[in-house]
């Protein structure tokens, strides 16, 4: 999910996580000595991060994990890396990225290159990192709104963008036309297309759509993928927009060519997303997606925004209401709570959340109200207060769909308050047909 940063915000382009390998070696030696001495803090770190130490009593830890390699493994895992060699390799990539940037060497200068991303959040950072290729944003948020498999998809998406995001009809159509034209021209205009994505449902569904488009049309001579679900020293990785130019450049050497099985998965996911039943999409998620490992968990999280059997809420809607349950709060604070604390797989941009809040307020019995004193403020400063109905929904005394929310779409699945429809069962961890249980 793109994390927006102003293009002229130089602080956002700084290097916030320099990694000094000598410092990490010093920390590993200190931890090694602490383990040997039986220091409780050192033993606790081993138990937390060493894969073979879980549940082992203190009196055995010092003897079992007294080798320097064990301390190095713990240090690497504390920094979000699987092993000490992986830490060394990561430090080497960062160092090489900084050297190449200082030498003004363009990593993509060897052939005409297009960088394709589901947002504009890394455009400025890629330029600061020395990339000279063109940039294409493909960011229609197909994790929200109708994506039907019949009728005019273009018209349905344009109408959604107008209604949810306040775009004019011309703005919506221009945006969608630019994305379609850019994808159609990419293979003929560029020798190499590099896809920059992360692991959440917003990104992965757009990735599936892009792969399907290239699969069904002309393929670039080289289509390459950078797809990450974490980054060292980042405790809660949300998106590539969090990374500095040097960190983005360090990912360049990790890119991999897109292969036939990934093209096929993209087609399969794109088709299943548009089905009026969620069963095909759930089958893909449940079977796993080794071709693109983050895809399965992203699809699972996407399906959790079906109405749940116990209260009719999508998971996102429930997290929204829970964020304002204890006391009134601002919409901006709700967004921060979801991003930093409660959302299991953050995928929402702020505009996407405002659209969800606006939709919930259109119900005949809204679960929250906006403080009239802040009603004309921008969304982040609007003060939200949970209603009695909101409390009843969260406590399981009232089904959200009985409050007559407006028609909502999850891909090809239409969610209507007056119809029996697909719901998400947390007990089965799967979609189920019919009314609430």
Structure description:
With 437 residues, the chain is of the alpha/beta class. The chain has 17 helices and 13 strands. It has a five-stranded mixed beta sheet with strand order 2-1-4-5-6, covered by helices on one side. A three-stranded mixed beta sheet has the order 3-10-11. Strands 7-9-8 form a three-stranded antiparallel beta sheet. Strand 4, helix 9 and strand 5 form a beta-alpha-beta unit. Helix 9 crosses helix 11 and helix 9 crosses helix 13. The longest helix has 21 residues. The protein is globular and about 65 Å long.
Quick overview of this protein structure:
The chain is α/β, with parallel strands linked by helices and 437 residues long. The protein is built from 17 helices and 13 strands.
Keyphrases for this structure?
437 residues; alpha/beta; five-stranded mixed β-sheet; single chain; disordered N terminus; three-stranded mixed β-sheet; 17 helices
Span of the ends, CA to CA = 33 Å
Shape: globular
Strand arrangement in the largest pleated sheet: 2-1-4-5-6
The level of helicity is 40-55%
- Total strands: the figure is 13
Tell me the structural class. Answer: alpha/beta
